[in-house]
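Consider what follows.

. . .
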Amino acid sequence: MTTDAFEARKAELKGDGTAGRWLSPLNIHVLPKLGRVPVTDLDQRDIRDTLAPIWHTKADTARKALNRLSLVLRHAAALGLDVDLQATEKAKALLGKSRHVPKNNPSMAWQDVPNFYSSLEEPTLTHLAMRLLILNPGVRSKPLPISTSIKSTATYGRCPAKT
């Protein structure tokens, strides 16, 4: 049922979901415990028991898994199966508020970057990727628009026409 729901949502996902991020919370945390349970037999206690181990430690992952499980249940209902569409909301009520407090990872001080870069000597994929990231800090998926407030003093030449 999960695969069927994913296939139906694929067009809405970036790159048709080829990265696998939509399915990963379900594949890692839900399906190992509930994968063999018929979708019509799922109830809020099953969902609560499945997500309880990560509810307070990996809150964002648990939230994603709960939301995607809700989409799977809605897909099953659309197929005409007798499922409890409120099971995920009931499970959320049973789990309570998450106590997870996100921590920011401190960034490296700019003064330490040259020494760190020097330590990336091995030609491994990880070291090469880190060197690329250090040398190209402003790489984005789309180019930034050129600001109209910056006035260029450069003159542009023309290529002579071929004769």
Observations:
- The chain has a mean pLDDT of 84.
- Residues 34 and 50 are 8 Å apart (CA to CA).
